[in-house]
Amino acid sequence: MAVDPLIELQGVNKYYGELHVLKDIDLAVGRGEVVVVIGPSGSGKSTLCRTINRLETVQSGTITLDGRPLPEEGKALARLRAEVGMVFQSFNLFAHKTVLQNVSLAQVKVRGRKRDEADRRSRELLERVGLRAHAAKYPAQLSGGQQQRVAIARALAMEPKAMLFDEPTSALDPEMINEVLEVMRQLARDGMTMVVVTHEMGFARASANRVVFMADGRIVEDRAPEEFFTDPRSERAKDFLSKILKH
Amino acid sequence: MNVLTDNLSTYWEGFLGTVELTVYSSLLALVLGFVMVSFRVAPVASLRVFGTVWVTVLRNTPLTLLFFAVLLGLPRFGLVLPFKVFAVLALGCYTSSFICEALRSGINTVPTGQGEAARSLGMTFAQTLSAVVLPQAFRSVIPPIGSTLIALAKNSAIAGAFSVTELLGTYKTMSELGYNIVWTFAWIALGYLVVTLAISALFHELERTWGVAR
Ligand SMILES: Nc1ncnc2c1ncn2[C@@H]1O[C@H](COP(=O)(O)OP(=O)(O)OP(=O)(O)O)[C@@H](O)[C@H]1O
Ligand SMILES: [Mg+2]
């Protein structure tokens, strides 16, 4: 367990109507820790990310960020959301805004920065993800990998305490996966606290401190990556790994 | 033929009346439509209900009935205003329900993921709607909103029946003076054509500048 938890879930239960999607989830993510979440489709990985960011409400349990419980709704929640960056499988860039505007928008709206100050910071971040030259383009003019890197820069622009990634490379062509993973590896090296839903085992092995294996809405295993991949304890995990290792 | 030249001032007054009704009612309809669509997608249930009731009631009431309700009903509650203001209220509220629905269909064309991304960045509901969702929704709704406002311009003729000075009402004056009814109506129709074509042109221009998908 993490010594200095930045994100902490205790006894979290989430239902969609009758469907029990998250079952008694306890999870602590330490400051600077990288946790990879892995598991079969429908096991609740996306839902877990979305509840940490309160894009979904939970029926019971507590979620704290940096020791503070998540507020219910309204302004306080909006502010808190900005502290946790989220990167989606489908990039979700604002289609009517340029790359630069995508990165600057929330800095101005949420952080109250001046436009030119925000733009300056956006350019720095775009530099960091290798896309400075594309600042004036619209999302549709970029490749998937480039779009996802913009999405990462956009989330980083809020100076979040933690970043959530929900299958950030699943929608990408194979040759673009690595450019996104490289940005994520760099983030991990820089000490960012990260929760990453991914089936990229290379990334998990190289950058993760822990692997959390989920099945049917429960956390089944929570272990160091090497241990988990070479010696899974549960039948569910063995079964799952044998399936994805075949590919 | 000389029906126009002989009655230029009557005709011109009527034309201005129609333009005025159209402009004010359009502004009211756009503002209210905007507010109502915000209600309809709001995270607060009571606002959603209000928006839904507003649209359902207004969209399904015949406009003439609405005119009667406003002109005869509101004074009963002590609200006495010039007929022209009542007419703008009736036309504006009625049309706002159509604007609201057009905007809502536009909102549905914007992928929900973009709204979620905005929220995950800490933007409030109002910020998400105004900076991310509506600007994109607008692009796809420029043509239907144009049609709605053209319909509004033509619907404004009903106000004439309630003694508001507008284009169609001028026929009474002219037919009383014994002018040829066919020509009278032809000129009136031309007046409406000028108004509706102006709206068309405006929306074509808007679509040319904003409607392009990037
Ligand atoms: N908005 C929703 N309404 C109802 N059910 C939902 C909703 N979102 C997800 N679910 C259900 O909740 C369960 C968990 O979904 P979730 O998306 O968290 O799974 P996942 O582990 O991310 O799967 P995948 O690997 O396919 O992305 C699934 O059974 C799914 O059908
Ligand atoms: Mg998922």
Name its key features:
heterodimer, A: 247 residues, alpha/beta, six-stranded mixed sheet, 9 helices, 38% helix, 26% strand, globular, B: 214 residues, mainly alpha, MetI-like fold, 0% strand, elongated, binds adenosine-5'-triphosphate, binds magnesium ion
In short:
The complex is a heterodimer of chains A (247) and B (214). Chain A is α/β, with parallel strands linked by helices and 247 residues long. Helix content of chain A is 38%, strand content 26%.
Structural write-up:
The complex is a heterodimer of chains A (247) and B (214). Chain A is an alpha/beta fold. Chain A contains 9 helices and 10 strands. The longest helix of chain A is centred in the C-terminal third of the chain and has 16 residues, at 174-189. Chain B has a single domain (2-210), classed as MetI-like (MetI-like fold, Orthogonal Bundle). With 214 residues, chain B is an all-alpha fold. Helices cover 79% and strands 0% of the residues of chain B. The chains are: A alpha/beta (247), B mainly alpha (214). The A-B interface holds A 53, 55, 73, 75, 78-86, 88, 90-96, 105-106, 109-110, 138, 140, 151, 154-155, 158 and B 43, 111, 113-114, 116-124, 127, 131-132, 135-136, 139, 214. Bound molecules: adenosine-5'-triphosphate (ATP) and magnesium ion. Magnesium ion is lined by residues 45-46, 166-167 of chain A.
